[in-house]
Amino acid sequence: MAEEEVEINPEGGEGIDTLGEYVGERNSKNERHGKGRALLPNGDIYEGMYSRGKRHGKGLYVFRNGARYNGEWCKGLKYGEGVFYYPDGSKYEGDWKRDMKHGYGAYYYPNGDIYEGTWMKGKRHGLGAYMYAQSGTRFLGTWNQGKMEGPGQLIHPSHRFHGEWNNNLPKGRGVYIFQPDLMQHGSYLHVKDPEFTYVMPESLEDEAQEEQTLPKGVVPIWHVQNITKYDPDLMPPEAKPVQITDSVESVVEEEEEGQEEEPLLEETEEEGEKAEAWEEEENKSLLQTEEADADEDETPPENEVAGENPESTLEEEN
Known about the structure:
- It is a single chain.
- By secondary structure, the chain is mostly beta strands.
- Helix content is about 10%, strand content about 45%.
- It has helices spanning about 200-210, 270-290, and strands spanning about 5, 20-25, 30-40, 45-50, 55-60, 70-75, 75-85, 90-95, 100-110, 115-120, 125-130, 140-145, 145-155, 160-165, 170, 170-180, 180-195, 215-230.
- The chain has an 18-stranded antiparallel β-sheet that branches.
- It is elongated and about 75 Å long.
- The two termini are about 15 Å apart.
Protein backbone atom coordinates (compact mmCIF):
# COMPACT_ATOMS: atom_id res chain seq x y z
CA MET A 1 0.00 0.00 0.00
CA ALA A 2 1.31 3.49 -0.82
CA GLU A 3 2.54 5.54 2.07
CA GLU A 4 2.56 9.31 2.37
CA GLU A 5 5.47 10.76 4.25
CA VAL A 6 7.78 13.72 4.57
CA GLU A 7 11.38 12.65 4.23
CA ILE A 8 14.62 14.53 4.76
CA ASN A 9 17.64 14.85 2.46
CA PRO A 10 15.66 15.53 -0.76
CA GLU A 11 17.32 14.78 -4.09
CA GLY A 12 18.53 17.56 -6.33
CA GLY A 13 19.61 19.94 -3.60
CA GLU A 14 16.47 22.12 -3.42
CA GLY A 15 16.76 22.04 0.36
CA ILE A 16 13.06 21.49 1.18
CA ASP A 17 11.06 18.56 2.44
CA THR A 18 8.52 17.19 0.01
CA LEU A 19 5.47 14.99 0.27
CA GLY A 20 5.11 11.97 -1.99
CA GLU A 21 3.82 8.44 -2.31
CA TYR A 22 6.21 5.52 -2.72
CA VAL A 23 5.70 1.82 -3.26
CA GLY A 24 8.76 -0.36 -3.39
CA GLU A 25 11.78 -1.82 -1.69
CA ARG A 26 13.70 -0.26 1.17
CA ASN A 27 16.92 -0.98 3.01
CA SER A 28 17.59 -1.47 6.71
CA LYS A 29 17.59 2.32 7.21
CA ASN A 30 14.14 2.59 5.62
CA GLU A 31 15.57 4.40 2.62
CA ARG A 32 14.23 3.77 -0.85
CA HIS A 33 16.53 1.07 -2.11
CA GLY A 34 15.96 -1.31 -5.03
CA LYS A 35 12.93 -1.31 -7.31
CA GLY A 36 10.23 1.23 -6.62
CA ARG A 37 7.56 3.54 -7.93
CA ALA A 38 6.99 7.10 -6.73
CA LEU A 39 4.04 9.43 -7.32
CA LEU A 40 5.24 12.98 -6.69
CA PRO A 41 3.11 15.85 -5.33
CA ASN A 42 3.21 17.73 -8.65
CA GLY A 43 1.93 14.72 -10.59
CA ASP A 44 5.27 13.47 -11.92
CA ILE A 45 5.96 9.73 -11.75
CA TYR A 46 9.20 7.82 -11.39
CA GLU A 47 9.49 4.06 -11.73
CA GLY A 48 12.82 2.30 -11.56
CA MET A 49 15.83 1.64 -9.38
CA TYR A 50 16.87 3.41 -6.19
CA SER A 51 20.00 3.34 -4.08
CA ARG A 52 19.95 4.75 -0.54
CA GLY A 53 17.02 7.03 -1.20
CA LYS A 54 18.05 8.35 -4.62
CA ARG A 55 17.28 7.40 -8.20
CA HIS A 56 20.19 5.22 -9.20
CA GLY A 57 20.37 2.74 -12.08
CA LYS A 58 17.76 2.43 -14.81
CA GLY A 59 14.46 4.21 -14.49
CA LEU A 60 11.61 6.04 -16.21
CA TYR A 61 10.62 9.58 -15.15
CA VAL A 62 7.33 10.92 -16.55
CA PHE A 63 6.59 14.66 -16.24
CA ARG A 64 3.12 16.06 -15.82
CA ASN A 65 3.55 18.12 -19.03
CA GLY A 66 4.05 14.99 -21.14
CA ALA A 67 7.85 14.94 -21.23
CA ARG A 68 9.64 11.80 -20.10
CA TYR A 69 13.14 10.47 -19.57
CA ASN A 70 13.97 6.79 -19.86
CA GLY A 71 17.53 5.85 -19.06
CA GLU A 72 20.28 5.67 -16.49
CA TRP A 73 20.60 7.61 -13.24
CA CYS A 74 23.34 8.16 -10.71
CA LYS A 75 22.62 9.57 -7.25
CA GLY A 76 19.41 11.25 -8.37
CA LEU A 77 20.76 12.73 -11.62
CA LYS A 78 20.47 11.72 -15.26
CA TYR A 79 23.85 10.12 -15.82
CA GLY A 80 24.83 7.66 -18.55
CA GLU A 81 22.74 6.68 -21.57
CA GLY A 82 19.14 7.79 -21.88
CA VAL A 83 16.35 9.12 -24.08
CA PHE A 84 14.45 12.34 -23.33
CA TYR A 85 11.11 12.97 -25.06
CA TYR A 86 9.98 16.61 -25.06
CA PRO A 87 6.39 17.91 -25.11
CA ASP A 88 6.90 19.61 -28.50
CA GLY A 89 7.72 16.27 -30.16
CA SER A 90 11.49 16.61 -30.17
CA LYS A 91 13.74 13.90 -28.76
CA TYR A 92 17.30 13.57 -27.49
CA GLU A 93 18.99 10.18 -27.43
CA GLY A 94 22.51 9.81 -26.12
CA ASP A 95 24.87 10.47 -23.22
CA TRP A 96 24.03 12.41 -20.06
CA LYS A 97 26.13 13.73 -17.23
CA ARG A 98 24.96 15.61 -14.14
CA ASP A 99 21.47 16.13 -15.61
CA MET A 100 22.86 17.64 -18.85
CA LYS A 101 23.44 16.38 -22.36
CA HIS A 102 27.14 15.57 -22.30
CA GLY A 103 29.09 13.28 -24.61
CA TYR A 104 27.71 11.85 -27.84
CA GLY A 105 24.06 12.10 -28.79
CA ALA A 106 21.42 12.91 -31.39
CA TYR A 107 18.68 15.54 -31.13
CA TYR A 108 15.59 15.16 -33.33
CA TYR A 109 13.71 18.45 -33.85
CA PRO A 110 9.93 18.76 -34.47
CA ASN A 111 10.52 20.14 -37.99
CA GLY A 112 12.51 17.03 -38.97
CA ASP A 113 16.00 18.52 -38.54
CA ILE A 114 18.58 16.32 -36.81
CA TYR A 115 21.79 17.12 -34.98
CA GLU A 116 24.16 14.24 -34.28
CA GLY A 117 27.49 14.75 -32.60
CA THR A 118 29.13 15.69 -29.33
CA TRP A 119 27.71 17.79 -26.50
CA MET A 120 29.17 19.54 -23.49
CA LYS A 121 27.16 20.87 -20.55
CA GLY A 122 23.89 20.76 -22.48
CA LYS A 123 25.13 22.47 -25.66
CA ARG A 124 26.38 21.26 -29.04
CA HIS A 125 30.14 21.32 -28.70
CA GLY A 126 32.85 19.64 -30.75
CA LEU A 127 32.41 17.74 -33.98
CA GLY A 128 28.83 17.36 -35.15
CA ALA A 129 26.52 17.11 -38.16
CA TYR A 130 23.30 19.11 -38.58
CA MET A 131 20.83 17.90 -41.21
CA TYR A 132 18.18 20.28 -42.57
CA ALA A 133 15.05 18.30 -43.41
CA GLN A 134 13.44 20.86 -45.74
CA SER A 135 16.39 21.46 -48.08
CA GLY A 136 18.36 18.24 -47.65
CA THR A 137 21.47 20.29 -46.81
CA ARG A 138 23.93 19.08 -44.17
CA PHE A 139 26.45 20.98 -42.09
CA LEU A 140 29.42 18.98 -40.85
CA GLY A 141 31.93 20.79 -38.69
CA THR A 142 32.89 22.06 -35.27
CA TRP A 143 30.65 23.70 -32.68
CA ASN A 144 31.50 25.84 -29.68
CA GLN A 145 28.94 26.33 -26.91
CA GLY A 146 26.03 25.71 -29.27
CA LYS A 147 27.34 27.78 -32.21
CA MET A 148 29.02 26.86 -35.50
CA GLU A 149 32.66 27.86 -34.98
CA GLY A 150 35.78 26.82 -36.88
CA PRO A 151 36.29 24.47 -39.85
CA GLY A 152 33.27 22.94 -41.50
CA GLN A 153 31.49 22.12 -44.72
CA LEU A 154 27.98 22.77 -45.99
CA ILE A 155 26.86 19.94 -48.25
CA HIS A 156 24.09 20.73 -50.74
CA PRO A 157 22.49 18.20 -53.11
CA SER A 158 24.46 19.57 -56.11
CA HIS A 159 27.53 21.18 -54.55
CA ARG A 160 29.31 21.78 -51.27
CA PHE A 161 31.23 24.54 -49.49
CA HIS A 162 34.37 24.04 -47.36
CA GLY A 163 35.51 26.86 -45.12
CA GLU A 164 35.43 28.50 -41.70
CA TRP A 165 32.47 29.54 -39.55
CA ASN A 166 32.16 32.30 -36.98
CA ASN A 167 29.11 32.90 -34.82
CA ASN A 168 26.98 30.57 -36.99
CA LEU A 169 28.02 32.31 -40.26
CA PRO A 170 30.64 31.38 -42.89
CA LYS A 171 33.60 33.75 -42.71
CA GLY A 172 37.02 34.00 -44.38
CA ARG A 173 38.60 31.91 -47.11
CA GLY A 174 36.79 28.91 -48.52
CA VAL A 175 36.10 26.74 -51.54
CA TYR A 176 32.94 25.78 -53.42
CA ILE A 177 33.14 22.41 -55.16
CA PHE A 178 30.88 21.77 -58.15
CA GLN A 179 30.36 18.66 -60.22
CA PRO A 180 32.24 17.10 -61.77
CA ASP A 181 35.65 18.52 -60.78
CA LEU A 182 35.57 22.32 -60.48
CA MET A 183 36.66 24.41 -57.49
CA GLN A 184 35.62 28.02 -56.95
CA HIS A 185 38.00 29.81 -54.57
CA GLY A 186 37.08 32.92 -52.64
CA SER A 187 36.21 34.31 -49.23
CA TYR A 188 33.19 35.36 -47.18
CA LEU A 189 33.14 38.88 -45.78
CA HIS A 190 30.71 40.06 -43.12
CA VAL A 191 29.05 43.31 -44.22
CA LYS A 192 26.93 45.35 -41.85
CA ASP A 193 23.41 46.10 -43.00
CA PRO A 194 21.09 47.44 -40.27
CA GLU A 195 18.01 46.61 -42.36
CA PHE A 196 19.00 42.97 -42.84
CA THR A 197 18.38 40.13 -40.42
CA TYR A 198 20.05 36.82 -41.21
CA VAL A 199 17.41 34.08 -41.25
CA MET A 200 18.48 30.88 -39.49
CA PRO A 201 16.66 27.54 -39.34
CA GLU A 202 13.82 27.76 -36.82
CA SER A 203 15.30 25.06 -34.61
CA LEU A 204 18.60 26.94 -34.32
CA GLU A 205 17.04 30.40 -34.18
CA ASP A 206 15.28 29.82 -30.84
CA GLU A 207 18.52 28.75 -29.18
CA ALA A 208 20.49 31.62 -30.74
CA GLN A 209 17.99 34.16 -29.43
CA GLU A 210 18.32 32.74 -25.94
CA GLU A 211 22.10 33.04 -26.12
CA GLN A 212 21.94 36.50 -27.79
CA THR A 213 24.06 35.29 -30.70
CA LEU A 214 21.64 35.75 -33.62
CA PRO A 215 23.71 37.83 -36.09
CA LYS A 216 21.30 40.67 -36.77
CA GLY A 217 22.44 43.33 -39.22
CA VAL A 218 25.29 41.18 -40.62
CA VAL A 219 25.34 39.82 -44.18
CA PRO A 220 27.85 37.14 -45.29
CA ILE A 221 28.98 38.14 -48.82
CA TRP A 222 30.87 35.68 -51.05
CA HIS A 223 33.74 37.16 -53.12
CA VAL A 224 35.05 34.94 -55.95
CA GLN A 225 38.80 34.93 -56.57
CA ASN A 226 39.37 32.23 -59.19
CA ILE A 227 38.16 28.86 -60.54
CA THR A 228 40.39 25.80 -60.87
CA LYS A 229 40.14 22.08 -61.41
CA TYR A 230 39.67 20.00 -58.30
CA ASP A 231 42.89 19.65 -56.30
CA PRO A 232 42.76 18.14 -52.79
CA ASP A 233 45.91 20.07 -51.85
CA LEU A 234 43.96 23.31 -52.19
CA MET A 235 41.24 22.28 -49.73
CA PRO A 236 40.82 24.18 -46.44
CA PRO A 237 41.52 22.36 -43.13
CA GLU A 238 38.97 19.71 -42.21
CA ALA A 239 37.05 19.77 -38.95
CA LYS A 240 38.57 17.66 -36.19
CA PRO A 241 37.07 16.16 -33.04
CA VAL A 242 37.22 18.35 -29.93
CA GLN A 243 38.09 16.81 -26.60
CA ILE A 244 35.18 17.09 -24.19
CA THR A 245 36.48 17.96 -20.73
CA ASP A 246 34.79 18.69 -17.42
CA SER A 247 35.37 22.12 -15.92
CA VAL A 248 32.42 22.43 -13.56
CA GLU A 249 32.36 21.23 -10.02
CA SER A 250 30.62 17.92 -9.52
CA VAL A 251 27.11 18.17 -8.11
CA VAL A 252 27.13 14.56 -7.02
CA GLU A 253 27.79 14.29 -3.31
CA GLU A 254 30.59 12.09 -2.17
CA GLU A 255 29.78 9.18 0.07
CA GLU A 256 30.58 9.80 3.69
CA GLU A 257 33.88 8.34 4.76
CA GLY A 258 33.56 4.95 6.41
CA GLN A 259 29.95 4.54 5.28
CA GLU A 260 29.50 1.35 3.33
CA GLU A 261 27.25 1.27 0.29
CA GLU A 262 24.41 -1.16 0.84
CA PRO A 263 23.91 -3.36 -2.25
CA LEU A 264 20.64 -3.20 -4.16
CA LEU A 265 18.32 -6.06 -3.48
CA GLU A 266 18.52 -7.31 -7.09
CA GLU A 267 21.73 -5.68 -8.26
CA THR A 268 23.53 -7.60 -10.97
CA GLU A 269 27.28 -7.84 -11.35
CA GLU A 270 27.14 -5.57 -14.42
CA GLU A 271 25.16 -2.88 -12.55
CA GLY A 272 27.59 -3.04 -9.67
CA GLU A 273 30.57 -2.51 -11.98
CA LYS A 274 28.84 0.46 -13.65
CA ALA A 275 28.11 2.06 -10.28
CA GLU A 276 31.76 1.69 -9.31
CA ALA A 277 32.81 3.27 -12.61
CA TRP A 278 30.52 6.22 -11.99
CA GLU A 279 31.96 6.65 -8.50
CA GLU A 280 35.52 6.55 -9.83
CA GLU A 281 34.70 9.11 -12.52
CA GLU A 282 33.20 11.50 -9.98
CA ASN A 283 36.32 11.24 -7.80
CA LYS A 284 38.51 12.13 -10.79
CA SER A 285 36.24 15.06 -11.63
CA LEU A 286 36.49 16.44 -8.11
CA LEU A 287 40.28 16.20 -8.23
CA GLN A 288 40.37 18.08 -11.54
CA THR A 289 38.04 20.74 -10.15
CA GLU A 290 40.32 21.44 -7.20
CA GLU A 291 43.19 22.10 -9.60
CA ALA A 292 41.12 24.29 -11.95
CA ASP A 293 40.67 28.06 -11.72
CA ALA A 294 38.13 28.79 -9.00
CA ASP A 295 36.86 31.82 -10.93
CA GLU A 296 35.99 29.94 -14.12
CA ASP A 297 32.55 30.87 -15.46
CA GLU A 298 29.94 28.16 -15.66
CA THR A 299 27.56 28.08 -18.61
CA PRO A 300 23.97 27.12 -17.75
CA PRO A 301 22.26 24.50 -19.92
CA GLU A 302 20.05 25.71 -22.76
CA ASN A 303 16.29 25.74 -22.23
CA GLU A 304 14.85 23.08 -24.51
CA VAL A 305 11.16 23.75 -23.81
CA ALA A 306 9.62 27.21 -24.05
CA GLY A 307 8.48 28.40 -20.67
CA GLU A 308 9.78 25.38 -18.80
CA ASN A 309 12.82 23.14 -18.84
CA PRO A 310 11.65 19.72 -17.63
CA GLU A 311 15.24 18.48 -17.42
CA SER A 312 16.07 20.89 -14.61
CA THR A 313 12.75 20.85 -12.73
CA LEU A 314 12.59 17.30 -11.45
CA GLU A 315 10.32 17.15 -8.43
CA GLU A 316 12.20 15.84 -5.44
CA GLU A 317 10.86 12.70 -3.87
CA ASN A 318 12.95 11.46 -0.97
